[in-house]
Amino acid sequence: xxxxxxxxxxITYGEPITRGxxxxxxSRRTRGLVTVAALVALAAVGGHAARGSDEIxxxxxxxxxxxxxxxxxxxxxxxxxxxxxxxxxxxxxRAVEARAAADQAAADQAAAAKKAxxxxxxxxxxxxxxxxxxxxxxxxxxxxxxIWVSRAGASRKIRFIGIDTPETGQCGFTxxxxxxxxxxxxxxxxxxxxxxxxVDRYGxxxxxxxxxxxxxxxRLVKQGYAVARYDSRDGYGSHTREAxxxxxxAASPKASCAEPGAGxxxxxxxxxxxxGSWPLAGDTYPxxxxxxxxxxxxxxxxHEPGDRYYTVTKPEQCFxxxxxxxxxxxxxxxx
Length: 335
Fold this sequence. Notes:
The protein is α+β, with helices and mostly antiparallel strands.
């Protein structure tokens, strides 16, 4: 019986199998399938490797070993910075910029210094203005303890607190007045109250007189041109600087003086000045004959007998000689 290779052949259990032509065909077919499966697996492995898969399982005929692909990172390449190239033009530009920055810094410093100086000057002017508003200008020294002062158009007569100096015609009058002129004449002074009364019986303000921080009255006492008086010891009441005045008076020497009428011949008028009848005819404001030289404090001009305007001059001070008048700050009349 001829078997068709495509038909199944029954096999009895235990009977050896005899491979016929159909068997050969099946074997070849099987080997072909295995080959195809292997090729498919290899293709799959290649595809997964291209896609970056780490593990590829082969499918097809039976289990397929797993192929693991490990990626090796590419070595890191660090690029070194390109060396900078400096040209002469760049150096010149930087030098110009550096000079400009230095000039600007110097200008800023100079501006700051000027601003500080201007502020300091403004503060000094403000302080001077404030000080001037609080002080008085001495316009006239009457004697060693009395002066006239003015401020903002107002004039006041001031009597020094706590001191006393010789009156007109007494020994030491000229010396005390001249000493006070030397201390405060023509300057600004500060007036400070401190006596029991504000004014005296003549309407004069009672004040301490300070110039540049110096107590003018106390200085006169220390120099011997004034004595400490009009205080608690003689019924006038204490004043705030009394103790210092009393101590200075006890320690100071007494200034020498020239007796009135004891003039010298060093001036144009000496001795008693003139002889004959006195006062001169037409003299409305005569001085004593022993002190005939007239001193006018408004003009600070001294007139002696025989001068053109002598008889009409109203003197605030009288001198024995022209030399005495000049020593007191007066100048001789020209006519």
